Records
---
Amino acid sequence: MIKNFKKSSLNLTKEEYIKENSNYLRGTIVDDLKNETTNGFSGDNFSLIRFHGMYQQDDRDLRIERNQQKLEPRYAMMLRCRLPGGVISSKQWIKIDSFASKNTFYKTIRLTNRQTFQLHGILKKNLKSVHQILHKIGLDSLATANDVNRNVLCTSDPMQSEVHQECYEWAQKISNFLLPHTKAYAEIWLNQKKILSTDHEPILGKTYLPRKFKTTVVIPPHNDVDLYANDMNFIAIIENKKIIGFNVLIGGGLSITHGNKQTWPFLALELGYITLDKTLSVAKSIVTTQRDWGNRSNRKNAKTRYTIENMGLNLFKKEVEKRSNITFEPIRSYFFDTRGDKIGWKKDINGNWSLTIFVQNGRIYDNDNQLLKSGLLKIATVHKGNFRLTSNQNIIVSEILSENKNQIEKIALSYGLIKNTSKLRENSMACVSFPTCPLAMAEAERMLSNFITEVENIMLKYKMEKEIIILRVSGCPNGCGRSLLAEIGLIGKSIGRYNLYIGGNRIGNRIPKIYKENITEKEILVHLDFLIKNWSIYRKANEDFGDFVIRKKIVKEVINPIHDFWN
Ligand code: SRM
Ligand code: SF4
């Protein structure tokens, strides 16, 4: 524990003091790394390592057993890489795969729904080596967790637009621009010498942000990044195949606390349009407004959406205009029509090919049906282009030259990477949950595949098997699986029990409403059977499931979540 920790009369949260007293995120992490009597970190370091992209976890399946054996929980770290826009080269993939196989408990790579990957189960003693490997291949895990701007998302599919490269570069620029300036990461993990200059955080400030902060760059009409769940969003406005500026939307977020009506999910709101040259200055002003006005006394009220609610959107906007010396122009016209990834082969505008591979819940491992991990590794050894991770937890093998297409297709087929999958499954998502997530209340990733099979059977029974429903599961109300932007969203309450939400829409700008509370998987399937049956009989032509349950008033539409979500 850092010694001079003391609470002031301002009633700041404990986390604020941890940051303040951390010596720019150093804490005493170095000492903990030397301590071989435990696999864990102590005191404030538990929280500080998150700023460096790691979480201390323990395997929850083993908790009771280890406790009975009087052993400490099986501590190990999860590392989350920074990968703005989700692009990773074949060479980088090979190294990551090798580290995962040799040095993690689970030997898997987990693609996240924010276009990066996590490695679960790294022992404390192996942490430095993973950072050094990342550094050697041009990657890091800086600022992928805790109270900073996280991994910046960008529409994944490079085939979909001529402006993709430009947008991807913006995602990188914004990510780099908003990174912490402290050299703590380089000193602790890469053994770089401490520079004896004073540390300074010009954008984030010494106590960083009040809470996590999430950013996207989006190319309409494809909302694969689920922009409405993010704090700050730049929607590309394109003229003559060039980006001329961005519509800026702020204040999205999905987490709630069961039963706490002071928490609500919220969709990002429009601030206005800016020309390209204003992008970084506006990004900085939004972040610093949130830094200075955000609530530091209550972490459940600290995200941008609550700051906007507390100060009002107009004042927030004025503050951003003042800080960046601009006036927002009216929002330019834009629309979205899709969210999911198009699985399979596509030809790009340069005549190259890409293969989008469906990855159930983003988990990359080998099993009896599919050698996903080995297959991707094999592709990486011959593929000269990149891999692109998507916000739907899938992976795109991109920039495949025509002459290499057959070779990659052969590998993909022989390892079972190309499969016939229902639209329902392709569009499903679950958060990690058990066994690694300390906050999990119910299963998510481990239950989804079989659960989808059951729902597929229902769809088949009512001849709806070719249809899409966006179905997502989160193991707790933090909502990492973005269930509160799904047409059918499950949120864990306790082992085997969930709240069932319905009525989100296909493009992700309507929050679903609770339909049944605290029910079992079996009960959920009975309700879904009833709802899907009715949808199959009474839907209007091509009417989506979410739109149907709203039109039929099966649940009330959530128009303003602050008022409508709970009531
Ligand atoms: Fe998340 C915390 C996993 C996307 C809202 N999230 C966690 C932790 C780190 C648990 C913890 O704090 O100890 C989970 C680690 C589990 C594990 O074992 O890996 C975790 N979140 C994930 C991932 C891996 C889910 C996935 O299956 O893909 C996603 C990682 C994204 C990334 O690469 O950065 C992930 N988390 C999200 C999203 C969705 C999104 O960002 O698009 C949300 C909802 C959107 C939002 O932020 O409102 C989300 N995670 C949370 C929250 C609630 C935050 C809040 O506003 O209150 C927590 C808990 C917290 O921060 O206190 C949380
Ligand atoms: Fe863990 Fe809850 Fe997030 Fe799932 S939703 S990963 S259970 S924090």
Note: Residues 1-9 have pLDDT under 50 and may be disordered.
---
Amino acid sequence: MKPIQVGLLGIGTVGSGVFNVLQRNQEEIRRRAGRGIEIAMVADLDAERARSIAGDKARVVGDAREVIANPEIDIVVELIGGYGIAKQLVLEAVAAGKHVVTANKALLAVHGTEIFKAAAEKGVVVAYEAAVAGGIPIIKALREGLAANQIQWVAGIINGTTNFILSEMRDKGLDFDVVLKEAQRLGYAEADPTFDIEGVDAAHKATIMSAIAFGIPVQFDKAYVEGITKLAATDIRYAEQLGYRIKLLGITKRMDKGVELRVHPSLVPAKRLIANVEGAMNAVVVHGDAVGTTLYYGKGAGSEPTASAVIADLVDITRLIEADPTHRVPPLAFQSHTLREAGQDLPVLPMAEVVTSYYLRIRVADEAGVLARITGILAGGGISIDAVLQREADEVGGEGSTQTDLIILTHDTREGDMDAVLAQIQGLPTVLAPITRIRKEELN
Ligand code: HSE
């Protein structure tokens, strides 16, 4: 079957990510969506750059309206940004009966009501997972995963630029202006960083989450918006001494009298997970009456993380177009006829084939040569040591003890190799108790 035909409006950072990820993962995406997804057209004012990304795989045009007018195009992806021409083009695409995917938080926070109404009248979807917190599927979580709950509040670090600046101010004790310049030099902040540092970008995203959480229209004009430009390094330091971190939070809360919608720097207890979200990362905490508190963490910007969310929307819409109403989302994510047979070319590995690193605690006789013998056996088995700690015998077994514990951290190795080596070590007469082995996962 012919792949779903996508037209990209704008092929900058995110657009090129969408292009690359769709290419790289096309087979998996087809198996999930039930049909291939292909970028057939790209519109960009910089046709040369667009061609350098799209090559001969998509038709490149300078006029976005050519994409919208093309009856072959099923889904239009708007990656232009802002409220101006982007709004017109989204409305025109909807009027032309196209489904739309957009990453444009500003557009939806301000004009969402009008856009969603137009889409409903035309019977098309406007999808926007990428508009809030980039690659984190927070729209899906709020709209679908948490649908049983009365959402009570949502609080998020939803602007990576400001979180990077705040992290640097805290780590290095530097003032805002100094760090902003550094962030611009490193590409973490734009040449004109106003929307980010004044809290506007976060307020756009908080506005969208507020609407989804509480079933109210998007109301950016009612949001309280305060950025980080007036924050002093001194306050970050004092807050730290009191056990808090300062984060720019987008907050929306259900109260008896109404809904709070606000963005401002906030003290957060340092022990909260969200207080430890550093650098350009994003995180959103959602509190629902049934589920309690849940946390979503990941990259809130960048080429491929944002593309990940855009493509998830493309897959959703493709599943809708394919319309098997009972199995819109396949129970095991991939269309059932594309599931691999058990074991076929992607088997679940036996534990002996698992690769991980290890913490070992070995109770040994405190004698000369014991450590050398054990490390020799590890080396002989091809296992590389990351760290070794030898406890004082007195500490381990009390005054005059002749036993001690060797603690060894290894680098990654096959479990089967580790089993063989541990059997040898366990057999040494100087090893006095069963060896404790705990697997170590860096998760980085
Ligand atoms: N400028 C945003 C940020 C990314 O710094 O998080 C896009 O919303």
Note: The CA atoms of residues 104 and 194 lie 17 Å apart.
